[in-house]
UniProtKB/TrEMBL annotation:
Domain Lipoyl-binding, residue spans: 585-660
Protein name: Biotin carboxylase N-terminal domain-containing protein
UniProt organism field: Bosea vestrisii
Cited PROSITE patterns: ATP_GRASP, BC, BIOTIN, BIOTINYL_LIPOYL, CPSASE_2
Co-factor(s): biotin
């Protein structure tokens, strides 16, 4: 009997890229697909793709995608036979899995008991220790007082890692190097854990030196079979969030793979695991990967974001396997049947600005284009014309490349990133390409600190003005201005307009005078100079040298007459300068206006009006996409104005604090 005969319909309790991913496989297998969406996603791609779609609430996740009762009501109304939770949101929620079972709806995931056993990092570590799986030294107990935990950190020895017990995706995780920083880091980790997972409890463990993040993909069925599908290396991280993942892990040996695979499958068997899961290990990489130097971190009881690299090397469809197991069928293969071919890498393309500390970026996607190649796979949940909103994870796409060797796969990835076009929100596209090409990453050794150590070389800091991008946009704007002048002449005279650079008899061409073109470039006033030699134009930007040679710049038209100039993965916004659009608040503040870097919630304000502050002092914390962003004083001064109260929603660019002299 086919999967579709046993599970004829599926509700995807998620959104975006993973919802599209599940729908594609479910449709291929003949299942009726049902989507749920918030107001922010009413026109989203996954809603369009599904056979049916139902609204479940406003944009905030707590009122939509995290509302289990609403999702279950839709499942009952639509006659869904099963629910796929994707990742994030309710995917590892024990109560939701139990509610599905109580309603007679198959939960496409492990049993609630397994989620419960592995859902909290402290309990999971205690459980796997009994199965002889090595764990990182640390404190995993119930006592949560700041003084007690600070003493435990001293006992463990700095640096330490504070981690939310219910955490994931880097949320609620803080590395602490000094005792004096512990209390603030603990408070921040607890807030993030509470906001993201509803649980403020943390654990404290030793920060492993030269850490490699290696995880094992496991799969179990309801017939007692558990296998692993090789490993993935996720060591390229920023703020404990994965950036590039690959399979197999560089430097992996058969001995270490066997040891890790055994530890992972034993951990899964210990909780009666069924379905797709990932056992994550931290390895001490100072002497390469060794069988006696890896430690259990956590088990993710769901499908991982990076699962496509495993699919690329094994040829398996993990979503299909999930549905097969959920339908009660055996896996149909043993550990000896699992083979890996070639190498695969995945890069997470995000709407974020590496030049501004990777702050999330939002807005309309004015252009979106990916390369087409048999070696490249694109998993995305958006298309041109959609918007990246401040309510959810800012992922635009996953770019996956496969090759016969690691170098070939990385070459394919770098090429794909170079051919990708995104206009609208700022992205990490140029950063990812440099990372894929980085010699230190390709030749190793590398660890989870690689990005932080090479942040400047990777371009993740303020960059000089992209003169080539500005020049291309300036020429386009001037051409449009000339067309507008000619159109106006036609309108006024009723005659076919002539070029103003032809003489009255049209027998000779008058030289075109050089032109000064006032521009607004990423908010900065710049004067471009355009000179002509016949029909050829040359642009110069005083103070910003323009390299000679060809420059492949893509221009995307945005609102308000602005062009988004895309060059080597970076984006520059260029418009004709309008003297009436000057930001008077910023000008009046003379650099003392501290604005919200993104749309979010002001969760803490540490200063009052009239208070003297020093450069670098914490002023406020803005929470966006479940992560905290600290605003600090750019210079010494006195607080003259507060633009918002704690608890208020603030828009990107909104005034938070004003400093006087």
């Amino acid at each position: 009997m086919s999967i579709a005969a046993k599970l004829p319909s599926i509700l995807i309790a998620n959104r975006g890229e993973i919802a599209c991913r599940v729908i594609r496989t479910a449709r291929r297998l003949g299942l009726r697909t049902i989507a749920v969406y918030s107001d922010a996603d009413a026109q989203a791609l996954f809603v369009e793709m599904a056979d049916e779609a139902y609204r479940i609430g406003p944009a905030p996740a707590r009122e939509s995608y995290l509302d289990a009762d609403k999702i279950l009501a839709v499942a009952k109304h639509s006659g869904a036979a099963c629910i796929h939770p994707g990742y994030g949101f309710l995917s590892e929620n024990v109560e939701f899995a139990e509610a599905c079972a109580a309603a007679g709806i198959v939960f496409v995931g492990p049993p609630a008991s397994a989620i419960s056993a592995m859902g909290l990092k402290d309990a999971a570590k205690a459980l796997v220790e009994k199965a002889n799986v090595p764990v990182v030294p640390g404190y995993h107990g119930a006592e949560q007082g700041v003084d007690f935990l600070a003493k435990e950190a001293e006992r463990i020895g700095y640096p330490v890692l504070i981690k939310a017990v219910a955490g994931g995706g880097g949320k609620g995780m803080k590395k602490v190097d000094r005792p004096e920083d512990f209390a603030d880091a603990l408070s921040s980790a607890q807030r993030e854990g509470k906001n993201a997972f509803g649980d403020a409890r943390v654990l404290v463990e030793k920060y492993v030196l030269s850490p490699r993040h290696v995880e094992i993909q496991v799969f179990g069925d309801s017939h007692g079979n558990v296998v692993h599908l090789y490993e993935r290396d996720c060591s390229l991280q920023r703020r404990h969030q994965k950036v590039i993942e690959e399979a197999p892990a560089p430097g992996m040996t058969p001995e270490v793979r066997a040891a890790m695979g055994k530890a992972a499958t034993e951990a899964a068997k210990a909780v009666g695991y069924v379905g797709a899961g990932t056992v994550e290990f931290i390895a001490d990489g100072r002497d390469g990967l060794r069988a006696d130097r890896f430690y259990f971190m956590e088990m993710n009881t769901r499908l991982q974001v990076e699962h496509p690299v495993t699919e690329a090397i094994t040829g398996l469809d993990l979503v299909e396997l999930q549905l097969k197991v959920a339908a009660g069928e055996p896996l149909g293969f043993t550990q000896d049947d699992v083979r890996a071919e070639g190498h695969a890498v995945e890069a997470r393309l995000y709407a974020e600005d590496p030049e501004k500390g990777f702050l999330p970026s939002t807005g309309k996607l004015w252009a979106l284009q990916f390369p087409q190649s048999e070696d490249i796979r694109i998993d995305t949940g958006v298309e041109a014309g959609d918007s990246v909103t401040p309510y959810y994870d800012p992922m635009i796409a996953k770019v996956i490349a496969h090759g016969r060797t690691r170098d070939e796969a990385l070459d394919h990835l770098a090429f794909a990133l170079g051919e990708t076009i995104v206009a609208g929100p700022r992205t990490n596209l140029a950063f990812l390409k440099k990372l894929a090409e980085a010699e230190g990453f390709r030749k190793g050794p590398f660890d989870t600190g690689f990005i932080d150590r090479n942040i400047s070389a990777l371009g993740a800091e303020p960059q000089p003005l992209d003169a080539a991008a500005v020049a291309a946009a300036a020429l386009q704007l001037e051409e449009e201005r000339q067309v507008a002048v000619l159109d106006l002449a036609v309108e006024r005279t009723g005659d076919e307009a002539k070029s103003p650079w032809l003489d009255a008899d049209a027998f000779s061409i008058m030289p075109r005078p050089a032109l000064g073109l006032p521009l607004l470039v990423d908010g900065e006033r710049i004067e471009a100079r355009i000179e002509w030699n016949g029909d050829d134009a040359r642009v110069s930007l005083p103070g910003h040298p323009l390299d000679e040679g060809e420059h492949e710049v893509t221009l995307a038209r945005a609102e308000g007459g602005t062009y988004l100039a895309l060059h080597r993965g970076r984006q520059t916004a260029v418009a004709l300068f309008d003297p009436f659009s000057v930001d008077l608040d910023a000008a009046a503040g003379a650099g003392g206006v501290i604005k919200a870097p993104m749309h979010g919630k002001l969760i803490a304000l540490f200063v009052t009006a009239g208070e003297a502050v020093v450069k670098g002092q914490r002023l406020a914390i803005v929470e966006a996409m479940k992560m905290e962003h600290v605003l600090t004083a750019p210079r010494d001064g006195t607080v003259t104005e507060l633009g918002a109260e704690p608890g208020a929603q603030v828009a990107e660019g909104a005034k938070v604090v004003v400093l006087g002299e």
